[in-house]
Amino acid sequence: MPSDNESLTQIETQARRELDAAPDEDALERWRVAFLGRRGRLTLVLRSLADLPVGERRTLGAQANRLKRDLEGALQEKKAELARSATDALVEERIDVTLPGPPLPRGRLHPTTQTLRDVLDSFVSMGFQVVEGPEIEWDHYNFEALRIPKDHPARDMWQTLWIDYEQDGERPMLLRTHTSPMQIRVMEQTQPPIRVVVPGRCYRHEATDPTHEWMMTQVEGLAVDEGISLGDLKGTLADFARRIFGPDRKVAFRCDYFPFVEPGMELRIDCFLCGGEGCRTCSRTGWIEILGAGMVHPDILDAVGYDSERYTGFAFGMGVERIAMLRHGIEDIRLFYSNDLRFLRQF
Length: 347
Ligand code: FA5
Description:
- This protein is α+β, with helices and mostly antiparallel strands.
- The chain has helices at 5-21, 25-36, 41-48, 54-93, 111-124, 139-142, 181-189, 230-245, 298-303, 320-328, 341-344, and strands spanning 129-130, 136-138, 173-175, 194-203, 215-226, 251-256, 261-270, 287-296, 311-319.
- Bound molecules: adenosine-5'-[phenylalaninyl-phosphate].
């Protein structure tokens, strides 16, 4: 039991150290009971004063009472300090629910999608219906049914990515090289009159350059009915070109060969970059080819069960990225899928 100055000093030192370290209200209460409670250490000192001689009692009593007041004061201060820091923590955590949220970055449509939608709109407004087909296709639809038999040199027109799947020692599946297989699929399932456009991705195993990508988007068109002529094909495509490129762009039809049409042709637009003089983008020709087209070969009509004496049709297949290039003045098709936001944010 403490009975002199030194003991009071010890009590004070220990009391202040523990008070400083007290983290919360509970610890404060334990501290109060330990030092100032009924059986607390300081209280016991005060009680023991009665046994001391008068002189000592007075001095020690005065010191002990001062210490009691000091410790009580320190306790109140510590309580206030704990309360303050609790409030501060609450203020810190406060959320202003009236603040506007951080702005969400606005996305945009890829330039291919934007042009694709405009292309489809222009044909829909001419009475065409939009249908879609598989990107993984059978050799049969991609080639055979389009009059491109195995080992026929025309297969070289479409460098093919084959699917690693074998059947009877052959690989019959591929990533479609064009949307033309959908001509057959649509005709197999429908009777004339037919007017459809088919958007979709196509894949080719070819080296890339400013106008060639290994993946691109095509829109196929097919119209089959009685009395459809080459004039209808040219009129439809000229109207399409005017809607997409405006009246000033030059359009040229040229003979071309595709095994599934007769006659076949291609549609070219004068180069936006050099105005027809010849540059790297147009391979120095002054023109950029945007589509292949022609009258559906009568053998194909017969093969799907149509009467080719009664029905005729036209078909076309265009490259959507090439059209977007011409519209926006994009010099290199490889920019479309290189994921460079500086390019994409311009559209
Ligand atoms: C075809 O794919 C034929 N199926 C088009 C067709 C359909 C002809 C119906 C007759 C009747 P071609 O390989 O030329 O043809 O491609 C058609 C268009 O796709 C091209 O004019 C071009 O715009 C685009 N294209 C072709 N290859 C690429 C490529 N590697 N990168 C970007 N665009 C391409």
